[in-house]
Amino acid sequence: MIRDLELAFIKIHILYHADTEAVFGVGLMEELARHGYEISPGTLYPILAKLESGGFLTCETRTVAHKQRKYYRITPEGRKLLNRMREKIKALYQEVIDQ
Ligand SMILES: [Zn+2]
Description:
alpha+beta, Arc Repressor Mutant, subunit A, two-stranded antiparallel sheet, 4 helices, globular, binds zinc ion
C-alpha cells in the first residue's frame, strides 16, 4: 500500500520537475532518492513512458558525451494536471498536516 501512495507522489514530483527544466531518468532517480524515494529504472521508465503517451510529457533525445539521453518536458496538458494536483495537495495538507 505504501508503494501505491508513493508512486502517486513520484508522478507529481516528476511533473513538477519537468515543468521547471528538462529532466532525464538518472537525474530524476537521484532527485527522488534525495527525497527518500528509492525507484529503479524498471519502475521509472514505464512511468515516464506512460506520462508521455498520456500527453503529459514530451520527449526529446539528445546526445550527451556520445550517449543518447531522453529528456522530458511538461506539456500544457501536464501543467493542467499538475495545477489540479496542487489544489488537491493544498487541501490535503490543510486537513492532514495543518489542522
Ligand atoms: Zn524534487
